[in-house]
């Protein structure tokens, strides 16, 4: 997440001695500083990759087995409207022995599922256990949650910046200050795949004694405001 950069927010912070706004800057009275805010929030999005892997000498039979399992899985998945299919990929490649000679075929398929409903996703993984193995489980903060937090984080970091500016003014016995510039940035998890916080579970679901319990964990959002003020001495 990248919070909006805000420049010259002269109206965001109280300015004293407005008549001095057009006065030339005195480098000795310019102070650069930063303020930051953090908040811990639960990840609300889960993504699971499931895969099929078959090997043999008859490519036609391999593709038939993959297709049958994949179609059965897709039928179950489509019965859950809260679960989205992010990708559906198949691949076939030649298998070689230790003498680098062709001795068969490898057929694979991967489904990537995504949902905010963790209980339904957990149950679906259990239902698919006779067919699929888990490739990876990842959790993240959704784009919607990030957008919802943006204004709150911006307000919070600006309030801290303003409080720090006032503290500097009083500590240095200035009559007031004016804001020269300010930028706001975030140092948060990168929303790329869009998943983060790998929970790597490379195991066959069918081999598990109990259903998979999906837990998303939490992430920390951080916003930093960096800027300069000019102290008004007279």
Automatic annotation (TrEMBL):
Coiled coil: none annotated. It holds the Pfam family SIMPL. InterPro entries: 26kDa_periplasmic_antigen, SIMPL/DUF541. GO terms for biological process: DNA damage response. The keyword Signal applies. Residues 1-17 form the signal peptide. Keywords: Signal. The keyword Signal applies. This is Periplasmic/secreted protein. It comes from Mannheimia succiniciproducens (strain KCTC 0769BP / MBEL55E).
């Amino acid at each position: 997440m990248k919070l909006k950069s805000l420049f010259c927010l002269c109206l965001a912070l109280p300015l004293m001695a407005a008549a001095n706004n057009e006065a030339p800057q005195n480098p000795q009275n310019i102070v650069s500083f930063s303020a930051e805010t953090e908040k811990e929030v639960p990840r609300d999005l889960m993504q699971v990759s499931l895969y099929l892997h078959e090997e043999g000498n008859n490519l036609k039979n391999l593709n038939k087995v993959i297709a049958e399992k994949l179609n059965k899985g897709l039928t179950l998945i489509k019965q859950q409207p809260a679960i989205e299919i992010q990708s559906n990929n198949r691949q076939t490649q030649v298998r070689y022995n230790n003498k680098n000679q062709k001795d068969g075929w490898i057929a694979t398929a991967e489904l990537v599922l995504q949902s905010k409903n963790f209980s339904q996703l957990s149950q679906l993984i259990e239902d698919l256990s006779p067919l699929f193995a888990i490739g990876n489980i990842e959790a993240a903060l959704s784009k919607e949650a990030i957008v919802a937090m943006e204004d709150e984080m911006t307000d919070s970091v600006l309030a801290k910046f303003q409080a720090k500016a006032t503290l500097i003014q009083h500590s240095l016995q200035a009559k007031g200050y004016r804001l020269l510039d300010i930028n706001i940035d975030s140092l948060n998890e990168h929303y790329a795949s869009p998943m983060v916080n790998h929970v790597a579970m490379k195991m066959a679901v069918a081999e598990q004694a109990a259903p998979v319990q999906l837990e998303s964990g939490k992430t920390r959002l951080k916003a930093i405001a960096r800027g300069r003020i000019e102290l008004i001495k007279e």
